[in-house]
Amino acid sequence: MALDTTALNRRMTHFDDHDDLWLFGYGSLIWKADFPYLERRPARIHGWVRRFWQGSHDHRGTPEAPGRVATLIAEEGATCLGMAYRITPETLRPLDVREKNGYLRELTPLHFEDGTTAMGLTYLATADNAAFLGAAPLDDMARQIAGAEGPSGPNRDYLLHLETALAELGVTETHVSELARRVRLAGEPDRCDTGRPEDDTLRVQ
Ligand code: SIN
């Protein structure tokens, strides 16, 4: 069973005395902004790639059959595009609960499209958290995502919403789009994957 990170995140007081702060979202926080924010803008963070390597026991899976959701993996020279939200520090309290299945608040510089930067926060699930699943062949990850469901709904919806949200931001990422393609195929009985090369590299394009 996964560790609840809510209490650990409450100890991260970095922005407590600020009027507002930037939160960088790269997974469900891009397409499910069910929290109050003052402003939102696309932003990038450097040195990270988006990967479906985090287990979900509480939203898109169960402890018995976890789903797979996004986390960030350090990679030199990489860039990850997401959505930045300017929020008040109080907004972090419900977000800590939403992200409690292994995600920890992490300080990160954000780069906006107009060339400006700001220090902000992101929720990061590192390899040492109890729910971390790590890398696996894309076919295996897709099968897991296609079959998993949790209190927030089917795992496939998380992936497909993210693919759509990235497309709206003008980005196609091989890792996400190849997982989505396989998950769609898994939903079509009697169709087998003809097998495109498993190019699992990711760069924001
Ligand atoms: C994020 O979206 O930034 C964190 C992971 C998630 O909630 O999907």
Task: Provide tags for this entry.
5-stranded mixed β-barrel; alpha+beta; 32% strand; 205 residues; ChaC; binds succinic acid; Hypothetical upf0131 protein ytfp; disordered C terminus; single chain; 26% helix; 7 strands
Describe the overall structure.
- The structure is a single chain.
- This protein is α+β, with helices and mostly antiparallel strands and 205 residues long.
- The protein has one domain: Roll (Hypothetical upf0131 protein ytfp), CATH 3.10.490.
- A hairpin with a 2-residue loop joins strand 6 and strand 7.
- Helix 4 crosses helix 6 and helix 5 packs across helix 6.
- The N and C termini lie far apart (37 Å).
- The structure holds succinic acid.
- The site of succinic acid (SIN) has 10 residues, from helix 2, strand 3 and strand 5.
- It comes from Halomonas halophila.
